[in-house]
Protein backbone atom coordinates (compact mmCIF):
# COMPACT_ATOMS: atom_id res chain seq x y z
CA UNK A 1 0.00 0.00 0.00
CA UNK A 2 1.19 3.58 -0.56
CA UNK A 3 1.17 6.78 1.45
CA UNK A 4 -0.43 5.08 4.51
CA UNK A 5 -3.68 4.33 2.64
CA UNK A 6 -5.51 1.04 2.93
CA UNK A 7 -5.77 0.63 -0.83
CA UNK A 8 -3.45 0.47 -3.85
CA UNK A 9 -4.95 3.39 -5.75
CA UNK A 10 -3.59 6.91 -6.05
CA UNK A 11 -6.02 9.68 -5.12
CA UNK A 12 -4.29 12.60 -6.79
CA UNK A 13 -3.94 15.82 -4.81
CA UNK A 14 -5.45 18.99 -6.38
CA UNK A 15 -2.91 20.41 -8.84
CA UNK A 16 -2.76 23.87 -10.48
CA UNK A 17 -0.68 22.66 -13.43
CA UNK A 18 -3.48 21.55 -15.81
CA UNK A 19 -5.05 25.02 -15.56
CA UNK A 20 -1.69 26.80 -15.75
CA UNK A 21 -0.67 24.67 -18.74
CA UNK A 22 -3.95 25.39 -20.54
CA UNK A 23 -3.52 29.13 -19.95
CA UNK A 24 0.09 28.97 -21.15
CA UNK A 25 -0.94 27.14 -24.33
CA UNK A 26 -3.65 29.73 -24.97
CA UNK A 27 -1.20 32.63 -24.53
CA UNK A 28 1.29 30.92 -26.83
CA UNK A 29 -1.38 30.35 -29.49
CA UNK A 30 -2.58 33.97 -29.32
CA UNK A 31 0.99 35.22 -29.56
CA UNK A 32 1.72 32.93 -32.51
CA UNK A 33 -1.39 34.12 -34.37
CA UNK A 34 -0.45 37.76 -33.72
CA UNK A 35 3.11 37.09 -34.87
CA UNK A 36 2.00 35.37 -38.09
CA UNK A 37 -0.38 38.25 -38.86
CA UNK A 38 2.36 40.79 -38.05
CA UNK A 39 0.38 42.32 -35.17
CA UNK A 40 2.59 44.24 -32.70
CA UNK A 41 3.86 42.39 -29.61
CA UNK A 42 3.03 38.99 -31.06
CA UNK A 43 6.54 37.60 -30.58
CA UNK A 44 6.90 38.70 -26.91
CA UNK A 45 3.46 37.29 -26.03
CA UNK A 46 4.33 34.01 -27.74
CA UNK A 47 7.65 33.93 -25.85
CA UNK A 48 5.91 34.50 -22.50
CA UNK A 49 3.47 31.70 -23.25
CA UNK A 50 6.29 29.35 -24.23
CA UNK A 51 8.20 30.12 -21.01
CA UNK A 52 5.04 29.39 -19.03
CA UNK A 53 4.73 26.05 -20.84
CA UNK A 54 8.32 25.17 -19.88
CA UNK A 55 7.63 26.20 -16.28
CA UNK A 56 4.49 24.04 -16.20
CA UNK A 57 6.39 21.07 -17.65
CA UNK A 58 9.10 21.41 -14.99
CA UNK A 59 6.69 21.71 -12.07
CA UNK A 60 4.36 18.96 -13.26
CA UNK A 61 7.25 16.55 -13.90
CA UNK A 62 8.62 17.41 -10.44
CA UNK A 63 5.31 16.47 -8.80
CA UNK A 64 5.02 13.20 -10.74
CA UNK A 65 8.61 12.24 -9.84
CA UNK A 66 7.91 12.95 -6.18
CA UNK A 67 4.81 10.73 -6.34
CA UNK A 68 6.68 7.92 -8.09
CA UNK A 69 10.07 7.90 -6.39
CA UNK A 70 9.55 9.25 -2.90
CA UNK A 71 5.89 8.99 -1.93
CA UNK A 72 5.27 5.45 -3.23
CA UNK A 73 2.01 6.28 -4.98
CA UNK A 74 2.77 4.45 -8.23
CA UNK A 75 1.74 0.96 -7.19
CA UNK A 76 1.39 -1.81 -9.80
CA UNK A 77 -2.32 -1.12 -10.33
CA UNK A 78 -1.63 2.62 -10.71
CA UNK A 79 1.08 1.85 -13.28
CA UNK A 80 -1.42 -0.33 -15.18
CA UNK A 81 -3.78 2.62 -15.42
CA UNK A 82 -0.92 4.79 -16.64
CA UNK A 83 -0.11 2.26 -19.34
CA UNK A 84 -3.70 2.30 -20.56
CA UNK A 85 -3.63 6.08 -20.52
CA UNK A 86 -0.40 6.25 -22.55
CA UNK A 87 -1.76 3.75 -25.08
CA UNK A 88 -4.91 5.85 -25.54
CA UNK A 89 -2.82 9.02 -25.82
CA UNK A 90 -0.66 7.50 -28.57
CA UNK A 91 -3.83 6.25 -30.32
CA UNK A 92 -5.17 9.82 -30.30
CA UNK A 93 -1.85 11.02 -31.74
CA UNK A 94 -2.14 8.42 -34.51
CA UNK A 95 -5.52 9.88 -35.49
CA UNK A 96 -3.98 13.36 -35.39
CA UNK A 97 -1.51 12.35 -38.09
CA UNK A 98 -4.14 10.39 -40.01
CA UNK A 99 -5.81 13.76 -40.69
CA UNK A 100 -2.63 15.13 -42.28
CA UNK A 101 -2.08 12.00 -44.38
CA UNK A 102 -5.73 12.16 -45.45
CA UNK A 103 -5.26 15.75 -46.63
CA UNK A 104 -2.07 14.80 -48.46
CA UNK A 105 -3.55 11.81 -50.28
CA UNK A 106 -6.76 13.64 -51.10
CA UNK A 107 -4.67 16.34 -52.79
CA UNK A 108 -2.11 14.06 -54.42
CA UNK A 109 -4.41 11.34 -55.78
CA UNK A 110 -6.87 13.87 -57.22
CA UNK A 111 -4.82 17.02 -57.96
CA UNK A 112 -6.68 20.01 -59.34
CA UNK A 113 -4.05 20.51 -62.05
CA UNK A 114 -3.79 16.81 -62.90
CA UNK A 115 -0.13 16.80 -61.86
CA UNK A 116 1.54 15.94 -58.54
CA UNK A 117 3.76 17.48 -57.33
CA UNK A 118 2.54 20.71 -58.94
CA UNK A 119 4.71 21.91 -61.82
CA UNK A 120 5.74 25.09 -59.98
CA UNK A 121 7.02 23.19 -56.90
CA UNK A 122 10.53 21.80 -56.55
CA UNK A 123 10.22 19.07 -53.88
CA UNK A 124 13.06 17.56 -51.90
CA UNK A 125 14.98 14.54 -53.13
CA UNK A 126 13.93 11.67 -50.88
CA UNK A 127 17.38 10.08 -50.76
CA UNK A 128 19.17 13.23 -49.67
CA UNK A 129 18.62 14.82 -46.23
CA UNK A 130 15.27 13.02 -45.68
CA UNK A 131 16.99 9.64 -46.03
CA UNK A 132 19.76 10.71 -43.63
CA UNK A 133 17.08 11.77 -41.15
CA UNK A 134 15.39 8.40 -41.57
CA UNK A 135 18.62 6.62 -40.66
CA UNK A 136 19.11 8.96 -37.69
CA UNK A 137 15.66 8.20 -36.29
CA UNK A 138 15.92 4.46 -36.89
CA UNK A 139 19.27 4.44 -35.09
CA UNK A 140 17.75 6.41 -32.22
CA UNK A 141 15.06 3.74 -31.92
CA UNK A 142 17.83 1.16 -31.53
CA UNK A 143 19.67 3.19 -28.87
CA UNK A 144 16.57 3.82 -26.76
CA UNK A 145 15.82 0.07 -26.92
CA UNK A 146 19.43 -0.61 -25.84
CA UNK A 147 18.90 1.76 -22.90
CA UNK A 148 15.67 -0.06 -21.98
CA UNK A 149 17.35 -3.46 -22.01
CA UNK A 150 20.19 -2.04 -19.90
CA UNK A 151 17.64 -0.80 -17.35
CA UNK A 152 15.88 -4.17 -17.22
CA UNK A 153 19.28 -5.79 -16.55
CA UNK A 154 20.16 -3.14 -13.93
CA UNK A 155 23.03 -1.77 -16.03
CA UNK A 156 23.00 1.90 -15.04
CA UNK A 157 25.97 2.92 -17.20
CA UNK A 158 24.50 1.62 -20.47
CA UNK A 159 21.11 3.09 -19.54
CA UNK A 160 22.63 6.57 -19.19
CA UNK A 161 24.79 6.18 -22.30
CA UNK A 162 21.93 4.84 -24.42
CA UNK A 163 19.70 7.74 -23.40
CA UNK A 164 22.46 10.28 -24.08
CA UNK A 165 23.03 8.93 -27.61
CA UNK A 166 19.28 8.91 -28.30
CA UNK A 167 19.00 12.54 -27.18
CA UNK A 168 21.92 13.55 -29.43
CA UNK A 169 20.33 11.74 -32.38
CA UNK A 170 17.01 13.48 -31.70
CA UNK A 171 18.79 16.84 -31.66
CA UNK A 172 20.58 15.94 -34.90
CA UNK A 173 17.25 15.10 -36.54
CA UNK A 174 15.80 18.46 -35.49
CA UNK A 175 18.87 20.32 -36.78
CA UNK A 176 18.69 18.56 -40.15
CA UNK A 177 14.97 19.27 -40.40
CA UNK A 178 15.59 22.95 -39.68
CA UNK A 179 18.34 23.03 -42.33
CA UNK A 180 15.94 21.45 -44.81
CA UNK A 181 13.25 24.05 -44.08
CA UNK A 182 15.69 26.95 -44.44
CA UNK A 183 16.78 25.68 -47.87
CA UNK A 184 13.31 24.71 -49.11
CA UNK A 185 12.36 26.04 -52.55
CA UNK A 186 8.74 26.60 -51.48
CA UNK A 187 6.97 28.33 -48.60
CA UNK A 188 4.05 27.37 -46.41
CA UNK A 189 1.52 29.43 -48.40
CA UNK A 190 2.71 28.41 -51.87
CA UNK A 191 -0.10 25.94 -52.48
CA UNK A 192 -1.66 22.71 -51.28
CA UNK A 193 1.56 20.71 -51.67
CA UNK A 194 3.48 23.15 -49.50
CA UNK A 195 0.74 23.35 -46.88
CA UNK A 196 0.31 19.59 -46.48
CA UNK A 197 4.10 19.08 -46.50
CA UNK A 198 4.81 21.61 -43.76
CA UNK A 199 1.83 20.64 -41.62
CA UNK A 200 2.73 16.94 -41.63
CA UNK A 201 6.51 17.23 -41.30
CA UNK A 202 6.31 20.28 -39.03
CA UNK A 203 4.03 18.66 -36.48
CA UNK A 204 6.19 15.55 -36.59
CA UNK A 205 9.22 17.74 -35.90
CA UNK A 206 7.37 19.25 -32.94
CA UNK A 207 6.72 15.74 -31.61
CA UNK A 208 10.43 14.92 -31.97
CA UNK A 209 11.27 17.98 -29.85
CA UNK A 210 8.72 16.95 -27.20
CA UNK A 211 10.07 13.38 -27.22
CA UNK A 212 13.63 14.69 -26.87
CA UNK A 213 12.58 16.74 -23.82
CA UNK A 214 10.93 13.60 -22.40
CA UNK A 215 14.17 11.66 -22.86
CA UNK A 216 16.27 14.46 -21.33
CA UNK A 217 14.15 14.24 -18.19
CA UNK A 218 14.69 10.46 -18.16
CA UNK A 219 18.45 10.98 -18.58
CA UNK A 220 18.62 13.25 -15.53
CA UNK A 221 16.48 10.83 -13.56
CA UNK A 222 18.68 7.88 -14.58
CA UNK A 223 21.79 9.76 -13.44
CA UNK A 224 20.05 10.51 -10.13
CA UNK A 225 19.47 6.79 -9.57
CA UNK A 226 15.77 6.73 -10.43
CA UNK A 227 14.14 3.79 -12.24
CA UNK A 228 14.39 0.17 -11.21
CA UNK A 229 14.23 -2.97 -13.38
CA UNK A 230 10.66 -3.61 -12.18
CA UNK A 231 9.54 0.01 -11.68
CA UNK A 232 10.26 2.41 -14.56
CA UNK A 233 7.06 3.41 -16.29
CA UNK A 234 8.34 6.98 -16.76
CA UNK A 235 11.11 5.64 -18.97
CA UNK A 236 8.80 3.15 -20.66
CA UNK A 237 6.33 5.89 -21.63
CA UNK A 238 9.16 7.95 -23.13
CA UNK A 239 10.38 4.94 -25.12
CA UNK A 240 6.86 4.19 -26.43
CA UNK A 241 6.46 7.80 -27.51
CA UNK A 242 9.85 7.76 -29.24
CA UNK A 243 9.01 4.60 -31.18
CA UNK A 244 5.72 6.19 -32.22
CA UNK A 245 7.68 9.18 -33.57
CA UNK A 246 9.93 6.75 -35.49
CA UNK A 247 7.02 4.95 -37.12
CA UNK A 248 5.27 8.19 -38.13
CA UNK A 249 8.47 9.39 -39.80
CA UNK A 250 8.74 6.17 -41.82
CA UNK A 251 5.25 6.81 -43.22
CA UNK A 252 6.16 10.45 -43.91
CA UNK A 253 9.34 9.46 -45.70
CA UNK A 254 7.69 6.78 -47.84
CA UNK A 255 4.49 8.68 -48.65
CA UNK A 256 5.47 12.34 -48.82
CA UNK A 257 9.17 12.38 -49.69
CA UNK A 258 9.48 9.23 -51.80
CA UNK A 259 6.08 8.45 -53.36
CA UNK A 260 4.93 12.09 -53.43
CA UNK A 261 8.30 13.51 -54.45
CA UNK A 262 9.92 14.19 -57.82
Q: Can you give a write-up of this model?
A:
By secondary structure, the chain is mostly helical. The chain folds into 2 domains: 74 residues, Orthogonal Bundle (Helix Hairpins), CATH 1.10.287.70; 185 residues, Up-down Bundle (Four Helix Bundle (Hemerythrin (Met), subunit A)), CATH 1.20.120.80. Helices cover 74% and strands 0% of the residues. The protein contains 7 helices and no strands. α1 packs antiparallel against α2, α4 packs antiparallel against α5 and α4 packs antiparallel against α7. The protein starts with 16 loop residues before the first helix and ends with a helix. The model has no long low-confidence stretch (mean pLDDT 91).
In brief:
The chain is mainly alpha-helical and 262 residues long.
Number of helices: 7
Strand fraction equals under 5%
The poorly predicted ranges are none
CATH class of the largest domain: Mainly Alpha
CATH superfamily of the largest domain: Cytochrome c oxidase, subunit III, four-helix bundle
Measure the end-to-end span: 60 Å
Mean pLDDT: 91
Outline, from the CA principal axes? globular
Percent helix, as a range, is over 70%
Keywords, separated by commas or semicolons:
single chain, 262 residues, mainly alpha, Four Helix Bundle (Hemerythrin (Met), subunit A), 74% helix, 0% strand
What is the secondary structure topology, with strand pairs?
Elements: H1 17-36, H2 42-70, H3 76-109, H4 129-152, H5 156-182, H6 192-223, H7 233-259
